[in-house]
Amino acid sequence: MLTIVFKVCEWLSQDEYRRIREFADYLGRRGGCSVFVFKPSMLRSSNLKSYVSFLDKIGAEIEEREKLESLLEEMYKVVVDKTPWGYLLRSRSLLSRYLEEYRIQGFIRYSREHRGFIVSPYKIVDVVGTLEKYGFEVVDKSGLLRRNVAAIGFRGELRRYQSEAVEAWLGNSGRGLVVLPTGAGKTVVAIAAMARLGVPTLIIVYTREQLNEWVDKLRRFTDLAASDIGVFYSGEKRVRTVTVATYQSAYRNMDVLWDRFGLLIIDEAHHLPADKFRFIALKSLAPYRLGLTATPYREDGRHEELFSLLGGVVYEKSLEELEEEGYVASFVIVPRLVELSPREREKYRELRRRYLALARGRSVQELVQAAAVGDESARKALQLLGQMRSMLALCKGKMDEAKRIIEEELRKGSKIIVFTQYVRQAEELGKYVGAPVVTGKTDKVRRRMLVELFKRGRYRVIIFTTVGDEGLDVPDANVGIVMSGTSSRRQFIQRLGRLLRPAPGKTARLYYIAVRGTQEEAAMKRVLGELSSPLGLQR
After folding, report:
1. Nearest residue to 358 (alpha-carbon basis) of 377, 374, 385, 379
2. Integer Cα distance of 364 and 386 in angstroms
3. Fewer CB atoms < 10 Å away: N or C end of the chain?
4. Is residue 73 within a helix (H) or strand (E), and if so which, with residue range?
5. Cα–Cα distance measured from residue 459 to residue 454, given in angstroms and rounded to the nearest whole number
6. Are 287 and 145 in contact (CB under 8 A)?
7. pLDDT tens-digit readout, 225-275
8. CA–CA gap between residue 354 and residue 382 (Å, rounded)
9. Residues forming a β-bridge with 417
10. 159-168, 174-183, 283-292: which has the minimum mean pLDDT?
């Protein structure tokens, strides 16, 4: 058993003597000095450092000082290692007193099997910071906490707001969300942040098109060799210093990716709270995290989960601010209301009457839940709702208005993206105006070819279903037409953002076509009303 003896040759006050007896036993007087020995239990106490500080203050002479210093070093050392369940913290000191707040919040738990604390990956930076504040030396055996271990040079020039975003993220210990409109250069912000941090990085993107764009920009804005950039999707799986993966592939292969990266970048981060995609952030050990999105807030309220998985919003700029500063193209939103024909109106009213009778005041979400447990009236109500939406999407007035806008804009030399919600609507409009159509059913090779021809100007109009809402980068597109959509503010901003790449003299126009006196008009007004003012609305 280790024993540490010390003596005090100065006069001790009663308070000083009582304080010493809390952690040491009195052995008597020797050579005019009071001699004590540390109680064995006190040599394992988390207060050991304060005891030694007190003894130094009163001039005590500690025998075998080197043993005590070595013991102190071990007592105030925390070893960080990795497990499939999170980070493992081990120490000879009792850590629970320092980490109680994290335990209450559910971010750490004690594991008897591992004889240490398991820490959620997205909280490890905070936990380590807390322990270091209390004087602990942290020994990182995971190899994931150290910064500047990968040499990544940035070759680009940041705009002022992009530099601000990088600094804000770094100032938050390399965690958090950067919220910028589509077209504001979020990818470049992330690449610059990654280069500054200098750790192996996993980038999660939503589509194959986005994956290819990220690889192109990594080659353009960094000095990484081609062999240092990996891609991870269904057709190819290469893990490198910087690896770009799709949500689906990352979700299915986290057993391969979970412990390879220090930084996790989530593009289009509003998708992350989905039940299966959140597993990526839960499973990854990456202590540093960066989320990119134009619209972090979700209608279902699950953005709170996004904040806990990646960190809160550390930087945000609105469209209006960037437009005023000249960083995105000026824009106007042009609502267009069209009429149903008398026959269409009569049919719509009949469908609506039958729908309301079956719905009985229930919301769409409530109808879906009821239909799922066998409610026949709810199932029929949803069928009628689908028929109403299809009828509005395909009504002649909407098709004619879209054709008029396209013909007028083509005469001006515009480049036009048409956004639709439904495959049939996209296909019917494509036939009506003679434009290429891209849907989720479009073969990947053909899809890539059509987008490339549109970028090159061989096509001046292209029609997308929701596959065009994200990951579409056509800098000179200046006109958009919303034929149908949800009442989601996020979707509308994403579509608007496709048009906002700046160019000299450019003013983007986004037309929103809705049918007057129907649920579409209400949805349009709700979306436009939720957007901050002024938005350059034209009537």
Report:
1. 377
2. 11
3. N
4. helix 65-75
5. 5
6. yes
7. 999 999 998 878 999 999 999 999 999 999 999 999 999 999 989 888 888
8. 11
9. 462, 480
10. 174-183
Walk across the sheet containing 5-8 and list its strands: 24-30, 33-38, 5-8, 61-62
Structure tokens at 250: 């990352």
Instruction: List, by residue range, all CATH 3.40.50.300 domains of the chain.
Output: 160-317, 330-339+395-530
Give the pLDDT score at 45: 75
The 3-class secondary structure across 276-324, one letter per residue, is: CCHHHHHHCCCCEEEEEECCCCCCCCCHHHHHHHHCCEEEECCHHHHHH
Q: How far is CA 539 from the centre of its chain?
A: 36
Question: Rounded distance, CA 255 to CA 107, Å?
Answer: 22
> From the CB of residue 263, how many other CB atoms can be counted at a distance below 10 Å?
26
CA atoms within 13 A on the CB side of 507: 9
Token code pair at residue 442: 């479009």
* Residue where the block lists tokens 């000026």: 330
Say if residues 313 and 175 touch (Cβ distance below 8 Å): no
pLDDT tens-place string over residues 420-470: 988 999 999 999 999 999 988 888 788 889 888 998 889 999 999 877 656
Tokens of 152: 């990544």
How would DSSP label each residue in 315-369?
Answer: EE--HHHHHHTTSS-EEEEEEEEE---HHHHHHHHHHHHHHHHHHTT--HHHHHH
Q: Which amino acid is located at 305 in the chain?
A: E
Rounded distance, CA 236 to CA 251, Å? 15
The full length of the chain comes to: 539
Q: How far is CA 202 from CA 250, 259, 285, 485, in A?
A: 9, 10, 11, 32
Q: Specify whether domain 76-140 bears CATH 2.40.50.
A: no
Dihedral sign of CA atoms 256, 262, 267, 272 in order: positive
Q: Is the pLDDT of residue 288 over 70?
A: yes
Q: Could you identify the residue written with the tokens 């999660």?
A: 204
The yes/no answer on whether domain 160-317 falls in CATH 3.40.50.300 is yes
Work out the average pLDDT over 272-289: 91
Which residues make Cβ contacts (< 8 Å) with residue 159, sequence separation at least 6?
Answer: 185, 327
Q: Name 539's Cβ contacts closer than 8 Å, sequence gap at least 6.
A: 335
Tell whether domain 330-339+395-530 is in CATH 3.30.210.10. no
Q: Smallest Cα–Cα separation from 464: which of 486, 487, 441, 488?
A: 441
**pLDDT over 80 at 10, yes or no:** yes
Residues of the chain with CATH 3.40.1170: 76-140
Residue 192 falls in which region: left (phi positive, over 0), alpha (psi -120 to 50) or beta:
alpha
Q: Which residues contact 410 (CB under 8 A, 6 or more apart)?
A: 416, 460, 461
Residue whose pair of structure tokens reads 């990956």 in the numeric block? 121
Quote the CA–CA distance of 387 and 35 in Å, as a whole number.
93
Residue 302 C-alpha from the chain's centroid: 12
Residue 326, sorted as left (phi over 0), alpha (psi -120 to 50) or beta, turns out to be: left
